[in-house]
Design a protein that fits this description.
Elements (H helix, E strand, L loop, with lengths): L1 H33 L7 E3 L4 E3 L1 E24 L4 E6 L6 E2 L4 E5 L2 H37 L4 H34 L1 E3 L4 E6 L6 E2 L4 E18 L11 E5 L8 E8 L9 E9 L10 E17 L5 E3 L2 E8 L2 E6 L1 E6 L4 E5 L6 E3 L12 E3 L3
Parallel strand pairs: 1-21
Antiparallel strand pairs: 2-20, 3-10, 3-14, 4-6, 4-9, 5-8, 6-7, 8-10, 10-13, 11-12, 11-14, 12-13, 14-19, 15-16, 16-17, 18-19
Length: 370
């Protein structure tokens, strides 16, 4: 009997424990359902966002061409002579008036002396003709000389005058030739080519040297005919030169050719470049852009950051730690990298710039360090 009572009590205890466990499990499940889950935060890389700023928009036409000196001269001999001395070497800087080449003056001096002697002879003949003329005129006034004899001495006098003038011209020419035997630089610049050496014989108009001025250069850049209407004289250009990395140079549109270049559908545009430090050289290749229009101080964002269609444009703007859909009015002015925003954004706003990222408004976000 005692054994039966013990078994009954044990069974009652097991039932009680089961009931208590059931209550515990029920309460624990309810707690799990009530507890809210943590929101999922989307992390954005800094490269996937853009801080709105004010900037200048530049609309450009690409340029590419070769630099060449604006002022360049080929020095040629004005007399036929032998080269006695060459004082300029290729690459040497020279000043206006510096002696570059000396020609042999022996023959030129002899020629000058001969012309001077001829001039003196002509002057002596003129003096005699003038004396005869004066005598005949005096006799004519007294009635002792016929008109024919007077005319004869008058003609001889005028002929002598003409001979003196002719001989004087030859003397001047010989003296000028002697002066031209010393060839001087007509401007400041650099010797780019030396065409003669001492002992060479050069004819009249023979090439002696080439002198260039590097202070002003010019780029001849072909512009396609479908873009030439955008280019105008006075517009600025920015360009770079291989080998001078890290430097950007500027120039100005000086002239526009009225016709297309032969064999192409492009029109040459000439861009003048000031080269005060002489770092640019003739023959260097230049590439860059002509600034055909510029809009200053506008709010601008990357074009890929603007979403929606023509009827409703918007950007994903970071509002605190969440994303908001911000309507914007996009202006017509746009470059390849920036588009102007007329309204809807302010300087300093942060927006999502990566077009592949799609986020619903209110999504929690944070910007990572990468």
């Amino acid at each position: 009997m005692k054994k039966k009572i013990t078994v009954a009590l044990a069974a009652i205890g097991i039932v009680a424990m089961g009931a208590g466990g059931a209550r515990y499990l029920k309460n624990d499940t309810a707690a799990a359902v009530v507890q809210p889950s943590a929101p999922i935060v989307t992390e954005l890389a800094r490269s996937e966002t853009f801080t709105v700023r004010r900037t200048d928009l530049r609309f450009t036409v690409p340029l590419a061409g070769t630099l060449r000196p604006v002022d360049q001269t080929t020095l040629k001999s004005e007399v036929a002579a032998k080269v006695s001395e060459v004082l300029a070497q290729e690459g040497q800087p020279v000043k206006k008036g510096d002696v570059l080449v000396r020609l042999d003056t022996e023959d030129l001096t002899s020629w000058l002396n001969e012309r001077v002697a001829n001039l003196e002879s002509a002057k002596a003949q003129l003096a005699l003709a003038e004396k005869n003329r004066s005598m005949k005129l005096s006799l004519q006034q007294k009635g002792y000389a016929a008109q024919a004899s007077v005319d004869e001495v008058e003609s001889a006098y005028r002929t002598s005058q003409a001979n003196v003038r002719a001989m004087q011209a030859q003397v001047d020419l010989a003296r000028k030739a002697l002066e031209n035997a010393v060839v001087r630089a007509p401007m400041d610049g650099f010797v780019s080519e030396r065409a003669v050496s001492p002992g060479d014989k050069v004819p009249v108009d023979g090439k002696l040297a080439v002198l260039i001025d590097l202070s002003r250069l010019e780029i001849e850049a072909p512009v396609p005919t479908n873009e030439i209407a955008l280019v105008a004289v006075g517009q600025m250009a920015a360009f770079r030169v291989p080998g001078l990395e890290g430097r950007e140079f500027t120039g100005r549109v000086e002239r526009i050719n009225p016709t297309t270049k032969s064999g192409s559908r492009s029109i040459p545009v000439y861009i003048q470049v000031e080269n005060g430090d002489k770092v640019l050289r003739g023959g260097m290749f230049a590439s860059g852009d002509i600034v055909v229009r510029e809009i200053r101080n506008v709010v601008a964002v990357p074009p890929e950051a603007v979403r929606g269609d023509q009827s409703q444009r918007y950007v994903l703007k970071l509002d605190g730690d969440r994303v908001a859909r911000q309507p914007v009015e996009v202006a017509k002015d746009a470059t390849a990298t920036l588009v102007a925003v007329a309204s809807g954004l302010s300087e300093g706003d942060t927006i999502v710039s990566a077009p592949s990222i799609v986020l619903e408004p209110g999504t929690p976000v944070r910007i990572g360090s990468r």
